Amino acid sequence: MTATIIGATGLTGGYLLEDLLQDNYYDTVRILVRRHIEMTHAKLEKKLVDFADAESFQLGLEGSDTVFCTVGTTQKKVKGNKEDYRKVDYDIPVKAARFCKLTGCENFVLVSSVGANSKSKNFYLQLKGEVEDAVKVVGLRSVHIIQPSVLLGDRKESRTGEKIAKAVMKAISFLLPSKYKAIQGKEVAKAMILLSKMEKEGATTYQYKDIKQALSTTA
User: Fold this and answer.
1) Phi, psi of 28, rounded to the nearest 5 degrees
2) Contact 32, 47 (CB under 8 A)
3) 124 has catalytic annotation
4) Ramachandran angles phi, psi of 47, nearest 5°
């Protein structure tokens, strides 16, 4: 079995990579990256991909049994350019799902966001909702959509706004509905792997309590 990760250098993707390399269910763990990364493992397969090039992207996904997509950018990285933001947060996951269909991979696990809604007036939530809508109609056998709120964990990059949000969310956590509670990125990663092994057909959405429940059933 081959698991392919898109977004392995991010917070959740990093935890996902670590866990998959230790998981006996998958024999090969492939990561699609824009540039070379210094990491080696007997199970690890690294593929340099130009995500804007359809052929390169599709070739990177061929032979996958499950594709995990945790890719995402920030306003800071794209300097506020919404079109550039869309190229990462919409184009990559939607194309990935479509290429999965073309290459015979029927199991797709996507990290989205709580509140995702294509009709939202908020740019980010609208975009995430559009991604979900587009992925659902591709026709894959199994689509698992994870909708976390604020993700906790150690990022390689500094995000001042996110640090403030994390502190606030922790302080008022007891006041929030469960789906808005902050959650550890490593918990999301573990849940993604567990869900990927389920023979569940159709598109299913998972929020905070669903993630926690998935983890508790194997504790």
Assistant:
1) -130, 135
2) yes
3) yes
4) -125, 125
Told to judge if 128 belongs to the known catalytic residues of this protein, a careful annotator would answer yes
- Report, as ranges of residue numbers, the positions in the chain whose pLDDT lies below 50: none
pLDDT of residue 81: 92
Is 86:52 a contact under the CB 8 Å cutoff? no
- For residue 15, report the phi and psi dihedrals to the nearest 5 degrees: -65, -40
Angle at 174 between CA 169 and CA 177, to 5 degrees: 85
**pLDDT tens per residue, range 16-45:** 999 999 999 999 999 999 998 889 999 999
Q: If 0-12 CB within 10 Å is exposed, 13-18 middle and 19+ buried, where does residue 201 land?
A: exposed
Cα gap 7→97, rounded to integer Å: 14
Q: Whose CA is closest to 186, among 5, 4, 7, 14?
A: 14
From 15, 95, 128, 186, the catalytic residue: 128
What is the dihedral sign for C-alpha 188, 189, 192, 194? negative
Q: Which of 46, 47, 90, 124 is catalytic?
A: 124
**pLDDT at position 163:** 59
User: How far is it, in rounded angstroms, from Cα 180 to Cα 176?
Assistant: 6
Q: Are the CB atoms for 59 and 99 separated by under 8 Å? A: no
For residue 179, the model assigns a pLDDT of 86
Residues 6+ apart with CB under 8 A from 85: 73, 75, 78, 123, 127
